[in-house]
Design a protein that fits this description.
It is built from nine helices and ten strands. The chain is α/β, with parallel strands linked by helices. Belongs to the secreted frizzled-related protein (sFRP) family. Keywords: Developmental protein, Differentiation, Disulfide bond, Secreted, Signal, Wnt signaling pathway.
C-alpha cells in the first residue's frame, strides 16, 4: 500500500498526459475490434485510459488505428507494448505507466519512420512526462536488448528512379555504381484494408550482395516498403504483382536506400543479359 501512495505522489507532481489520476476508473474487457492490443497478454483494460479516452468505440479503437502503419514497420520490438500500456492500461490495483526509458527507446527508433509517414512524434507522448525506472513502471525488457547494432535500417527517402525497358549499359552501370543489386517479386493484394498493403513474394535473389546480410534482406526490404508506403504503392497496381531489379546503397548513417528500380517484364531481354554478363563484367 505504501508503494502505491508513493507512486501516486510521484505522478501527481507530473503533467501526465490527459489522465486525471484522481478520477474514478473501471475495468472493461478488451474488445475483439481493438486488434492492436488484443494480444498483449491480459484481457481487461482500464477506462478512462492514460490518454484520457473513455469511449472504446468512439475514441480508443479509432486512435489505435492511426498507429497501425507505424507498428507494421517493426521500428521497435516494444512499440506495441508501449502504446498499449497507454491506450489499454492493464487493470490492476496500481496504475502502471510506461517508464521514461521505454518511451525514449521507442521514440528514438520509431520517430523517423513516423515522420516518413507524414506524422511527428506527438506532444502527448513527450517522454519527459513519464516516470523514472526507480518508480513502479513498465521498463524495457532485457530480452530485447541484444539487437544487432550494425544491421542497416531502411531510409525514409524520395521515390527512387524507375526505368522501364532500360538499355543494357544502363543496367550494368547501375550494378557497378551502387552497393548492391537484387531481384524481388512485389505483390499488392486487391483487398482494401489488408495488412501489409504490399508484400514480397518468394525469395530475394542477389545479383551482388554488397554490405547487406542475406538473412536480413527480406525483412529490411519489407520495412522499406512499409516506411515509404506512398512510393511503394506506385510500384505495383492494386491486385497485381511485379518483378523488379533493384539497386541501392548503405549510406554513412547506416540506413539502406534504394537508388534505381527496373521493372522486369518478359520482353525486357536487356535485364536478363545484364544479369548474365555481370559475373564477367569489369566496372
Amino acid at each position: 500500500m505504501a508503494v502505491f501512495f508513493t507512486l501516486v505522489l510521484v505522478l501527481l507532481c507530473r503533467p501526465m498526459l490527459a489522465f486525471d489520476i484522481g478520477q474514478s476508473t473501471r475495468c472493461v474487457a478488451i474488445p475483439s475490434q481493438f486488434t492492436m492490443c488484443k494480444d498483449v497478454g491480459y484481457s481487461e483494460m482500464r477506462l478512462p485510459n492514460f490518454l484520457g479516452h473513455s469511449d472504446l468505440e468512439a475514441e480508443v479503437v479509432p486512435y489505435s488505428q492511426e498507429w497501425k502503419p507505424l507498428l507494421l514497420t517493426g521500428c521497435h520490438l516494444q512499440a506495441q507494448a508501449f502504446l498499449c500500456s497507454l491506450m489499454a492500461p492493464v487493470c490492476l490495483d496500481n496504475f502502471i505507466w510506461p517508464c521514461r526509458s521505454l518511451c525514449i527507446a521507442v521514440r528514438d527508433s520509431c520517430a523517423s519512420a513516423l515522420s516518413c509517414q507524414g506524422r511527428q512524434w506527438p506532444e502527448v507522448l513527450d517522454c519527459d512526462r513519464f516516470p523514472d525506472e526507480d518508480d513502479m513502471c513498465l521498463s524495457p525488457h532485457s530480452r530485447f536488448t541484444h539487437i544487432p547494432k550494425d544491421l542497416p535500417k531502411p531510409a525514409c527517402q524520395n521515390c527512387p528512379s524507375v526505368d522501364g525497358d532500360p538499355p543494357l549499359r544502363v543496367v550494368l552501370h547501375s550494378f557497378c555504381l551502387y552497393d548492391f543489386a537484387l531481384t524481388l517479386h512485389l505483390h499488392r493484394p486487391r483487398q482494401i484494408g489488408r495488412e501489409p498493403e504490399l508484400e514480397i513474394r518468394g525469395r530475394v535473389q542477389f545479383i551482388h550482395q554488397g554490405p547487406l546480410m542475406a538473412y536480413d534482406s527480406r525483412h529490411l526490404l519489407q520495412q522499406w516498403l512499409l516506411i515509404n508506403l506512398k512510393c511503394a504503392r506506385s510500384l505495383v497496381r492494386l491486385g497485381r504483382s511485379q518483378l523488379y531489379v533493384m539497386t541501392g546503397s548503405v549510406l554513412p548513417d547506416g540506413t539502406m536506400a534504394l537508388t534505381r528500380l527496373f521493372p522486369w517484364h518478359k520482353k525486357d531481354a536487356n535485364i536478363a543479359v545484364a544479369i548474365r554478363k555481370w559475373q564477367y563484367h569489369r566496372c
